[in-house]
Structures are given as C-alpha cells and as structure tokens.
Design brief:
heterodimer, A: 134 residues, alpha/beta, Rossmann fold, five-stranded mixed sheet, 39% helix, B: 238 residues, mainly beta, Jelly Rolls, 2 domains, seven-stranded mixed sheet, seven-stranded antiparallel sheet
Chain lengths: 134, 238
C-alpha cells in the first residue's frame, strides 16, 4: 500500500520551524489520501496547531516515537484491530495522550473535536478511549 | 421522568459567509459551544441558505450519515461515485460517507436562494461502503399526520441510514394533536419546528426552535397554529 506521509523534517531549524515546534502537535492517521490531505490542511489553518498526517500504522508509530504529540486524530478506514493496536502503543508510550476519532472527513466538526479533546471535554466524540487497559 | 433540552431559535450559532447563511443548532465549524455538541447520535443540524449560483465546492467526508432536506429551491449534487442529481423541496437525500466520498452541492438557480436542512448522524458502523440515495416524498402524506422519511430499514418508508434512527415530517393544521410512540428503547426525540407554533409535552416551540426529549416512550404533540415540523428519533448513546 502506498503510504501518504504529510510531514517535513529539517536538520537546521529556521525561525518558522521553531514557531511550528511551539504549536500543539497533532498526529493524523487516515487511509484515504485525499481526506488525509484535507484534514491536515484544515488543522494547519489554525495558527496554534500543527498537524502531521500519515496513512500507515508503522509510519504513525515511528512518528509517535520521534515526536511529542498532544493529540492523535484517527480518520476513516482504520480497521478495529489496527485502531486497538495504535491506541495501546500510543498509550503505553504516553499515558496522557488524547486519542480521538475524527468523524466526517475534514468536515465542520474537525475544529470542535480538537478543541473539545484539548479541553478534556467529551464533546460528542463517542470513541474516546483514554486508556485501553482500563 | 423524561429529560428535556430546549434550544430556542435565536440561541443557535450564526455563520454568515455572504454566499452562505447557516444557523447551527449544534457546534459546527467556527461555532463552538461545549453545551451544544450533539443530541445523542444527532451531531449536526444546520439550517442553510445558499445564494443564487453559489454552493459548497468539492470536499471530502467519511464515517457520517448525511441527510439533506431541501425547503426551498433546487440543490445540485455531484459526487465521486458518479452521481449527478438535483434535489428540491419535497425530496430527501442521504449519503453514507463510510470509507470516504467527495461531493459538491450548488444552488441550481443563479437568481433565487436555496434553503435546506443539513443533518449529520453518527453511524452505528464505521468504514461502510459509501452510498447515495435520493427519493421524492408525497407532500399529501404529511398533511395532519406524521410522514416517515427515514429509518434504519431499506424496505421501510423513506430513505435508510446506518443507524437506529427514524425521522418524520408533518404539516399540521391548527389544533391537530398526535402522540408519537418511540420506535426503540434508549432513543430520544429531537423536534425541530420548521414553521408555526407547537407544544411538545407542554413545551411551546416557536418557528425554528428545537426541543429534545428522552427517557420516555411517547410524546404528545399539538399544533397551536398551522405548523410544519421535523421529528428525529435517535439513539442517545452509540
């Protein structure tokens, strides 16, 4: 399967990149390349958020190990066994990580979902599993 | 005892983009109110007015049941499954976004506005095969009675969705009363009053007011004036 990875790494940090590092880092995982691209673009329209998108689990796990994310957005097309695996791995590495299902595919719900999750509000996101081992 | 929530029309989120004027019953886009996120699995109720010749360009959706009910004018729909259609007042359109779909919606007319309700319901199954449907409704079937326009069953009246939900629409003369019986235990009913005055279990609703009621199995509805309204019965939990 072709992996869509929407991120950039630089050996030397520019001022712009330093500003990016100060933003809330969000990992977006979704199987549909067009939707993934739309979600990343929409998240990045918010000046306080910085999204990295990937379509593959292995890439998501690697990114999660390498970077400090505050929120993981699970998009469409992720099978339940994949979702459970990702939730377990992410939670083991960071028990405070917020993992939410994004519904609608880059829709008018996106901003609300992220805002609610960051404020620890249930916010209508029905699939929140803070700790899959509980 | 039944639980209720009242959403007066003038408390809805208001987004005026010039070409689009939308009233959001629940949090949507730049309207964010933690107290107004959803009613059970009913997540979006947008009351949209689109200017002539304008509309929503191609954009993606996934994992959502999306229902459009035109109230005035004609709306042109195109999607990535090859569907090209025009929906008008008296019809209902449904899309199961599932694994992913791209679509656009435009006002077919260059001169007059189109008004429609955009309703989103969380599906009871993720990653389904995307589907689209559109059907005409007989306006006579809602005169002084409840007309079912949506259900979970492909063989039942109206369109169907991946959710244990039933929608009805009605056009009552003043003084007409009916009792709505819930179809499924654990469901709630969201009443959206399109026009006129209604009482729902004693609660007065004016035009465009919304009222949710749950933890009960029936609801009494009376038209205080000539009235048109939409009933949305939905699960209160996934």
């Amino acid at each position: 399967m072709h992996n869509t990875l929407l991120t950039t790494h630089y050996p030397q940090l520019t001022t712009q990149q330093k500003n990016t590092m100060n933003k809330i880092q969000i990992l977006v995982i979704g199987r549909d390349a067009d939707i993934l691209q739309a979600v990343v673009r929409l998240v990045n329209k918010n000046e306080h958020w910085n999204a990295t998108g990937t379509s593959e689990d292995e890439s998501a796990i690697e990114l999660f190990h390498q970077h400090s994310y505050e929120l993981v957005l699970l998009g469409g097309g992720i099978a339940s066994d994949s979702e459970l695996k990702l939730r377990k791995i992410f939670t083991l590495q960071n028990p405070d990580i917020k993992i939410i299902q994004h519904w609608g595919g880059g829709s008018g719900l996106l901003k609300n979902e992220i805002q609610s999750a960051l404020e620890n509000n249930e916010g209508g996101n029905f699939n929140i599993v803070d700790n899959p081992f509980n | 005892m039944a639980n209720t929530v009242l959403h007066k029309a003038d408390t809805r989120g208001d987004a005026n983009h010039g070409w689009l004027h939308s009233k959001h019953t629940f949090s949507f886009a730049n309207y964010y109110n933690p107290e107004r996120m959803h009613f059970g699995v009913l997540r979006v109720l947008n009351d949209d007015t689109v200017a002539g010749g304008k509309g929503f360009g191609t954009h993606p959706h996934d994992n959502m049941e999306i229902i459009s009910i035109p109230l005035e004018g004609d709306l042109e729909h195109k999607d990535s499954m090859g569907n090209v259609a025009v929906i008008k007042n008296g019809e209902i359109q449904v899309m199961s976004a599932g694994t992913g779909i791209q679509h656009s919606e435009y006002n077919k007319s260059n001169n007059s506005t189109v008004k429609f309700l955009q309703i989103w319901v969380f599906p009871n199954k993720k990653n389904v095969t995307p589907r689209y449907d559109q059907i005409p409704l007989n306006l006579e079937d809602r005169k002084n009675k409840l007309q079912q326009i949506l259900s979970p069953n492909p063989d039942d009246a109206g369109v169907w969705i991946h959710q244990n939900a039933w929608f009805h629409i009605a056009n009552f003369d003043k003084g007409i009363t009916t009792e709505y019986q819930f179809k499924a235990k654990g469901n709630g009913l969201y009443v959206f009053n399109l026009k006129g005055d209604l009482t729902v279990d004693g609660q007065l609703l004016n035009t465009r007011d919304g009222f949710g009621i749950w933890d009960t199995d029936k609801v009494q509805i009376t038209a205080e004036t000539d009235a048109e309204f939409l009933l949305m019965e939905v699960p209160m939990a996934m």
